[in-house]
Fold:
Amino acid sequence: MTVELLAALVVLLALYVAVASNRFVRQRHLVEESARQVEVELRRRQDLVPALVETVRAYEQHEGDLLRELVAARDAAVEASGSEVAPAEQRLTRALHALPVLQTGPVQQLQAQLAETEDRIAAARRFHTANVRALDVRLDTFPSSLVARALGVERPDDDALEA
Structure:
């Protein structure tokens, strides 16, 4: 009976070690996957910023041209007399109607995408931090800490995600 009890305990211990090992593997994969997700979102932000900068530059050029046209049209309308008044006023009206275009369009879309990306980065970091914390808790609690030491499971390096 003692041998049977000892054999049962060895089998239960081996089963626990196998289950604990598999849980560590799953948690390590979750930590790695969540770290990659943070990196994907950071890359998305890095790709969006140059697009936003270029779009803003193009809009600045467009805005400068538009404002120069508006000033010229206003000056022409102020100085116009006689038959020149109607065409000068039409030119001024066209320039004024072009102004609302500056308030909408690609710049706002890119800003919205950038804000959404910042939210996604924060969410990905929270998910990653939760996965790291879960693994850390398992590494610090008994008896899984014994299994972790025996298997050589290490704490994840989290410094790369501080960008």
Summary: The mean pLDDT is 85. The two ends are 61 Å apart (CA to CA).
